[in-house]
Amino acid sequence: MSVQMEQQPVDAPVITVKNPRTGETLYTVPEPTIAEVDAMFETARSAFEVMRRMTVRQRLDELDKLKRYLIRNREKVATRVMEETGKCRTDAMVMDIFPSIDIVDFYQKNAEKMLADQKVKTPIMLIGKKSKVVYEPMGVVLVISPWNYPFNLAFIPAICALTAGNPVILKPSKYTPLRGVIEEMVEESGFMKGAFQVAYASRRTAHRLIESRPAKIHFTGSVDVGRTIMEQAAKYLIPVELELGGKDPFIVFDDVNIERTVNGALWGGFANCGQTCTSVERIYVQEGIYDEFVWVLKEKAERIKTLESPGAPFEDRDLGVGCMTTEFQIQEVEQQLAEAREKGAKILCGGRRNGQSHVFPPTIVTDVDHSMRVQYYETFGPVVTVTKFKTEEEAIKLANDSPYGLSASVWSADLERAERVARRIETGNVSINNVMATQGNSGLPFGGLRDSGFGRYKGAWGLHAFSNIKSILVDKQSARLESYWYPYSKQKYELLAKVIDAVFNGGPLGLIKTALLAMKLDALTKKDRL
User: Fold this and answer.
1) Which of its termini does the chain have fewer beta carbons within 10 Å around, N or C?
2) Residues contacting 29, CB < 8 A, separation 6+
3) pLDDT of res. 57
4) 8-17, 100-109, 208-217, 398-407: least confidently modelled range
5) What is the per-residue pLDDT across 328-363, written as a single tens digit (0 to 9) for each?
6) From 243, 273, 323, 378, active-site residue
């Protein structure tokens, strides 16, 4: 649900949302007032009191309502995503809608086991006691989502939090807020009231959302904004999950099927117009097949159907690449390419837009080095660089020469080599002989390291990330005192010292020695009491 807006002053801040393909204004939406933000948190905290008492199955039954709504209304939601992002329909369906349905389906089949109490082995010195871990809801979760996947990257973290028993307040990007999509889904599906709300806000109001002290923050977006959010959250010791940028390497050895590998590189680099945190941005090709690989890559890239390809406009479902979403990101792409040209890089195809259009063609750049921004910093557009390497060690070194560590892919017929390389790349996710494939498995955790952030969501880790992980040890009620309680004495100290040797250095007879020492300690404890 969204908060009902109270009467706004005439000059109240508003968010204007435009269609990036046409430039037309789609709508405006006022930012919430402080009172409205407070009301949202009050509603969410009331919902939390209900959710924390629900079983996991009861929560999943509620989430099934959202899943069924999405299945029935997938084309409608995909159309809204297209209008605000400029992406093609297939990208909206495959990369926004399908994963959102799949995460609910995955948790319906697995969450009860993942959130069940876990027995933990109790050591010999605590014999007679039982140990376990329980997963409890945390409270209101604030999800701050980006503009590039306005449904997927809002809905999936929210589902992780909701499944774990936490109400969610979503702050979508001001560029692609999808006004009314979540609200309509909640209302028409019959999903529980107050558990999933939306605050349409710029960074100005996002500050107030954090000041309201949610139990946890999940942020997806840029490195700079991630640091700002973490700094503000730190004042209140609010835990955060940061899913930030990437500069993903795509390593190709000389024993691959070039046709398949090139097609993987094209989809990984240009799907969603390259505006994916795990997009392929750096391609490293072993020197023996470099020339052939580059030729095939260029030839196929020029055949991808864009909004300005010969024969355009195409039917929505035939379009391969839509347009870029924001003007500021296009300018970043242009600046990186301009610097690369000045330093001697070659642009084999693409590289320029027509006028002020948001349509940026698939672009391939060669003759680059790591002094160029296009090779070192996130581009976040339909641009890939291609560099040759000689040895496995060189490929690993090049892949790791980056401030990011989000995702990567390794391509080789030698699976032993491919996995060996995958393990040495400093990143959170690696696909072998595939690209961005780890994101297709809802059972795998997702997240990065270095400037790509920290924390994991999806899979069991995505539920535990939004849980209070509580340790419980159960003992019987009796008159027996623990041997390590007061009062201390020299005799007790010496026996406890012998226990250390028996437990940790006792060898095969250690268990017997430990039992005998425990009996002596028990006898001493019964006799010597406060």
Assistant:
1) C
2) 14, 15, 17, 177, 179, 200
3) 98
4) 8-17
5) 999 999 999 999 999 999 999 999 999 999 999 999
6) 243
Q: Note the helical H segments in 131-257.
A: 152-163, 181-189, 203-211, 223-234
Tell me how far apart the alpha carbons of residues 518 and 496 are, in angstroms, rounded to a whole number: 9
The helix/strand/coil state of 167 is: coil
Residue holding tokens 């139990």?
A: 215
CATH C-level class of 14-244+461-470: alpha beta
Question: Whole-angstrom Cα distance, residue 254 to residue 501?
Answer: 57
Query: For position 9, what pLDDT does the model report?
Result: 45
Q: How confident is the model at residue 22 (pLDDT cuts 50, 70, 90)?
A: very high
Q: Is 277 a catalytic residue?
A: yes
Domain ranges of the chain: 14-244+461-470, 248-441, 481-527
On the question of pLDDT at 12 being above 70, the answer is: no
- Main-chain phi, psi angles of 175, to 5 degrees: -80, -35
Mean pLDDT of 276-302: 98
Under 8 Å between Cβ of 438 and 416? no
Asked if 432 and 422 count as a contact pair (C-beta separation under 8 A), the reply is yes
Our answer to whether residue 243 is catalytic in this structure is yes
pLDDT confidence band for 445 (50 / 70 / 90): very high
Q: For position 508, what pLDDT does the model report?
A: 82
> Residues 91-106: what's their mean pLDDT?
98
The active-site residue, picked from 277, 281, 323, 378, is 277
Q: Does the pLDDT at position 215 exceed 60?
A: yes
Distance CA 275, CA 329 (A): 9
What interhelical angle do 152-163 and 56-72 show, nearest 10? 160
Give the C-alpha separation, 248 to 210, whole Å: 31
467 with 477: CB under 8 angstroms? no
And the tokens for 318?
């035939």
CA dist., res. 326 & res. 480, Å (int): 69
Domain 248-441, CATH number (from 3.40.309.10, 3.40.50.720, 3.40.50.170, 3.30.530.20): 3.40.309.10
What amino acid is encoded at 198 in this protein? V
For residue range 243-273, list pLDDT tens digits in order: 999 999 999 999 999 999 999 999 999 999 9
- Treating both helix axes as pointing N-terminal to C-terminal, what angle do 490-505 and 510-527 enclose, rounded to 10 degrees? 160
Are 438 and 99 in contact by the 8 Å Cβ rule? The answer is no
Nearby residues of 123 by Cβ (< 8 Å), 6 or more positions away: none
Q: Checking DSSP bridges between strand 168-171 and strand 196-198, what pairing results, if any?
A: parallel
pTM of the model: 0.95
Residue with the larger pLDDT of the pair 231 and 511: 231
Mean pLDDT (whole number) for 229-252: 97
Question: Which uninterrupted H or E stretch holds 267?
Answer: helix 258-270
Of 213, 240, 243, nearest in space to 229 by CA: 240
The SS3 call for residue 409 is strand
Residues 52, 16: Cα–Cα separation, whole Å: 37
